[in-house]
Amino acid sequence: MDLFAPLLPYLPLTLLVFLAGFVDAIAGGGGLITLPAYLAYGLNPALLLGTNKLSSSMGTAVAAARFFKETRLRADLLFILVFLGGLGAGLGALAISAVPPDLVRWLLLVLLPPVAIFLAARKSFGFSDTSAMRSEGALLARSGGIALGVSFYDGLLGPGTGTFLALALTRFCGYDLLRATALAKLLNLVSNLAALGAFLWLGRVDLRLGLAMGLAGMAGNYAGSHVALKRGAWVIRPMLFTVSAALLAKVAWDMFR
Questions:
Q1: What is the dihedral of CA 123, 73, 62, 208, to 10 degrees?
Q2: What is the reported pTM?
Q3: pLDDT for 149-162, tens place per residue?
Q4: Residues 91-102: b if buried by 16+ CB within 10 A, e if exposed
Q5: What's the distance, Cα to Cα, between the start and end of the chain in Å?
Q6: Cβ pair 13, 41 in contact under 8 A
């Protein structure tokens, strides 16, 4: 037993990061679990966001690889979306000093309740792919605008980025939830890596802890993506509703506590 005693403090955090990866692979929102978990573990707040980005990037890379074939887009179109996602994340990071985070939180308080109500009311949302009804140019314009706008939010604030991407791509592009989730994972990976690069440059990453928890996140993302690929919208849709409600509760708590 003494042999494993040094590992015991890591066990709760490892399990929570695994759970976060599982949820994040299906519907996004893993940061709602990992950020409080790292703080409870006692991580220096100055290293919190960077360490979380390292572990979450490792996990998201697994999910993005597993989902990749479900994107079903030409390589040149994917490149454009990835470029716009990276650009949006970079612009969002630069805008942090110009846009008050509280303004973004108030917008979330206004936008999230209709999203949750919409998901509850539209029982068939995301079960069929109607994107073929739109031209390739229209799809590129819509998905590109979503990639740029939501990634901008990710660079600016962040929580729920994968959720917003999946919902917006389904609602405005007509993709089914599985395909929208696949695209969301790829775009979320790009914005995560862009942010991680900045945190590494600033020295705000606990590399040892981040890499160790990244392994747990990879395992969770692998398990979650397996469930999502097998069950599709049947499991993604209720998880999106749950994550949206949890995000609303967190934003409200942060605003009014």
A1: -110
A2: 0.84
A3: 998 888 777 778 88
A4: ebbeeeeeeeee
A5: 42
A6: yes
Q: What is the DSSP string of 194-250?
A: HHHHHHHHHT---HHHHHHHHHHHHHHHHHHHHHHHHHTHHHHHHHHHHHHHHHHHH
pLDDT digits (tens, 9 = 90+) for 166-195: 999 999 999 999 999 999 999 999 988 888
> What's residue 8's pLDDT?
59
Residues 196 and 202: their CA atoms lie apart, in Å, by 10
Residues 6+ apart with CB under 8 A from 146: 165, 168, 169, 172, 173
Query: How crowded is the C-beta side of 225, counted as CA atoms within 13 Å?
Result: 26
Q: Could you tell me the pLDDT band of residue 97, with boundaries at 50, 70 and 90?
A: low
Cα–Cα distance for residue pair 104/196, rounded to 1 Å: 22
Residues 6+ apart with CB under 8 A from 12: 37, 40, 41
Residue partners of 102: CB distance under 8 A and separation at least 6: 255
Tally of helices (H runs) and strands (E runs) in the chain:
10, 0
